[in-house]
Write a structure and sequence with these properties.
Elements: E1 9-14, H1 18-33, E2 37-38, E3 47-52, H2 59-76, E4 81-86, H3 87-92, H4 94-99, E5 105-107, H5 115-123, E6 128-130, E7 151-155, E8 157-158, H6 169-173, E9 177-178, H7 181-194, E10 198-202, H8 218-226, E11 233-237, H9 246-254, E12 261-263, H10 271-277, H11 283-296, E13 301-308, H12 315-328, E14 332-337, H13 355-378, E15 384-392, E16 398-403, E17 408-412, E18 422-430, E19 435-439
Parallel strand pairs: 1-2, 1-3, 3-4, 4-5, 5-6, 7-10, 10-11, 12-13, 13-14, 17-19
Antiparallel strand pairs: 8-9, 15-16, 15-18, 16-17, 18-19
Helix pairs in contact: 8-9, 9-11, 12-13
This protein binds iron/sulfur cluster.
């Protein structure tokens, strides 16, 4: 009598943004439909996927060096399949198969829905390169392994049509393509049926979404999703400043289940550098938008991205960025030194900034920002905030959660909560990068989703 075979296992390593995180969930779902199970140990996997990101410098080298490590596993186990996915896969394509003889397939971000067929083809002997941006793309709602505990992510727009001179996204994720309103709403309902309390709408330029059928815009979509019963928290990322309209600002102000947190990349505080970046807005128009958003939602926390040492950036430009940071008082900043990306226009602009100078500016910027965050976070001490539990600390000694304004909160373990529970937490310390507090027991915040403010503890930022 033949013994039953143990299930095959997959291991997915994900680098980069939420779009990649969701793509990994889509790939996991397809593999589970094939009867495979996940593993945390690449050593016991039958299939390893490296879902890569190409936003930062040396992305390709990092990917090839990681593939070099993984191919050693393959040499020990001849039947192990090794696949490269994500933006570096799109960028490298055929070249990756030539460089890494043990690589079995390459899948670009727009071809993620074809993973099952690609794995089957490979098992029949063909090494596959699936890149490019086909008009028809598989998107199987039932084939997503939603491994988040409370937040369901929904891609509403893929790719980007803009031409920011530093950015590789248009060539790795292709031209912009919005998903139809009906399809987005179907997925949102599917997620709340599944028990997700928080919905996050995703796109490189999420607020440039347009329904291909009715021409409804992102303001209409915000209205539709926010009015959907059981959507308790609604987030969206990433918004492009120039695409934010007055109607969108009004929608953010109108729906209290839209979280008071917005990521609004500014990139520089100098108009001269913004022009060289090809961003299509000015510092003044950015500040006007921030003012309008805060007027509509006084509790809104705004985070941003900044590139330091962009070609041509001089001391005055950098000082202007520091002034912007001081003026806006962002809740957090993702700041990096500029790094040239293949196929982008910025490296041809001239005016390279020395690495040491860029590093020095970055440290100065981060130091100023840490002080601002410390002040903003200290202002929460003594308040009660609504916190969604996202997990436990590594040593299991305390719980970690997020406020509606996306701040991280650490607090001592309390008896009942599992990830996804919403609790009231009294804040007793504000640190530069997080808050600390105590759960207010017996007062679990379980209010319903739609309509007026659910939280009684909404902070107002300066
Ligand atoms: S808007 Fe600019 S920075 Fe953002 S993805 Fe498009 S090209 Fe890149």
């Amino acid at each position: 009598m033949s013994r039953p075979q143990p299930p095959r296992r997959y291991f997915i390593e994900t680098w980069g943004c939420q779009m990649n995180e969701l793509d990994s969930q889509r790939m996991a779902g397809q593999l589970m439909q094939q009867g495979m199970l996940p593993t945390r140990d690449p050593g016991e996997a039958d299939l390893i996927l490296l879902n890569s990101c190409s936003v930062r410098e040396k992305a390709e080298q990092k990917v090839y060096s990681r593939l070099g490590e993984l191919r050693l596993l393959k040499r020990e186990r001849g039947d192990l399949l090794l696949g490269l996915c994500g933006c570096v896969a799109q960028q490298e394509g055929e070249r990756a198969l030539r460089r890494v003889s043990d690589l079995d397939f390459v899948i670009g971000p727009a071809r993620v829905g074809e993973l099952s067929e690609i794995v089957s083809k490979r098992r029949l002997g063909t090494r596959v390169v699936a890149t490019g941006f086909p008009e028809q793309r598989h998107f199987d709602l039932d084939a997503i392994s939603r491994d988040g505990t409370h937040k369901g992510m929904v891609t509403i727009i893929e790719g980007c049509n803009k031409t920011c001179t530093f950015c590789i996204v248009p060539s790795t994720r292709g031209p912009e393509r919005s998903r139809p309103l009906g399809e987005v709403m179907q997925e949102v309902r599917h997620l709340v049926d599944y028990g997700f309390r928080e919905i996050e709408l995703l796109g490189q330029t999420v607020n440039h979404w347009r329904d291909p059928e009715s021409n409804a815009d992102f303001a209409d979509l915000l209205d539709a999703v926010a009015r959907e019963p059981r959507v308790e928290r609604l987030r969206f990322v990433t918004s492009y400043p120039r695409d934010f309209t007055a109607r969108m600002v009004e929608a953010v102000g109108r729906h209290r289940n839209i979280c008071p947190y917005l990521h609004l990349p500014v990139q520089s505080g100098s108009d001269r550098i913004l022009r060289r970046m090809g961003r299509g807005y000015t510092v003044a128009s950015y500040l006007e938008l921030v003012e309008a958003l805060r007027a509509a939602r006084p509790d809104l926390a705004i985070s941003t991205d900044v590139i330091v040492g962009f070609p041509g950036e001089d001391e005055d430009d950098f000082t202007a960025t520091l002034e912007l940071i001081e003026g806006v008082r962002f809740s957090s900043i993702f700041a990096f030194c500029y790094s040239p990306r293949p196929g982008t226009a910025a490296p041809r602009l001239g005016g390279e900034v020395a690495a040491a100078v860029a590093q020095e500016r970055l440290q100065l910027l981060l130091g100023r920002q840490a002080a601002i965050q410390q002040e903003l976070n200290a202002a929460f001490v003594g308040r009660e905030m609504e916190v969604i539990v996202t997990g436990a600390s590594r040593d299991g000694s305390e719980l970690i959660g997020r406020t509606t304004c996306h701040r991280i909160v650490h607090f001592p373990i309390v008896p009942t909560p599992t990830p996804g529970t919403i609790l009231r937490v009294r804040i007793d310390a504000g640190l530069p990068h997080s808050l600390r507090g105590q759960a207010v027991l017996g007062q679990e915040a379980t209010a319903t989703a739609v309509g007026p403010w659910r939280s009684t503890a909404v902070p107002v930022l300066a």
